[in-house]
């Protein structure tokens, strides 16, 4: 199997951080745990990240940078890398999506797409 976008599986779990949020000040904190699984037969390195974070008012926050949580991990075939990070919204609901720039050991670069996922305070219906 050659490394293609479909060879990288990305799983996301989110959590509302009630104790760190302040709804009266329009400050809603969320954590997200990302698991990146390499389903290919070649090691891949996560080089950069690019996020689009949209709140319920349509405000978009774009985040780009090297690696994730200060690391540029290399993920071996059939192994996974997991990290947890967070974001702040001004609304109780939002959506994140993005992509990772990945590089194979043979030097080929490609994007692993992170499908849109919802950030929501429990019990909020939108």
From TrEMBL:
<protein>
    <recommendedName>
        <fullName>Protein ApaG</fullName>
    </recommendedName>
</protein>
<dbReference type="InterPro" id="IPR036767">
    <property type="entry name" value="ApaG_sf"/>
</dbReference>
<dbReference type="InterPro" id="IPR007474">
    <property type="entry name" value="ApaG_domain"/>
</dbReference>
<dbReference type="GO" id="GO:0070987">
    <property type="term" value="P:error-free translesion synthesis"/>
</dbReference>
<dbReference type="InterPro" id="IPR023065">
    <property type="entry name" value="Uncharacterised_ApaG"/>
</dbReference>
<feature type="domain" description="ApaG">
    <location>
        <begin position="2"/>
        <end position="126"/>
    </location>
</feature>
<dbReference type="Pfam" id="PF04379">
    <property type="entry name" value="DUF525"/>
</dbReference>
């Amino acid at each position: 199997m050659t490394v293609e976008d479909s060879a990288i599986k990305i799983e996301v779990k989110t959590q509302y951080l009630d104790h760190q949020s302040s709804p009266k000040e329009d400050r809603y904190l969320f954590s997200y745990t990302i698991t990146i699984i390499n389903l290919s037969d070649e090691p891949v390195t996560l080089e950069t990240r690019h996020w689009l974070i949209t709140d319920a008012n349509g405000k978009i926050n774009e985040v780009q940078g090297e690696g994730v949580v200060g690391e540029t991990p290399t993920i071996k075939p059939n192994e996974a890398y997991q990290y947890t990070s967070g974001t702040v919204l001004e609304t109780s609901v939002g959506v994140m999506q993005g992509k990772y720039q990945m590089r194979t050991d043979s030097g080929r670069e490609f994007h692993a797409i992170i499908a849109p996922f919802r950030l929501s305070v429990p019990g909020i219906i939108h």
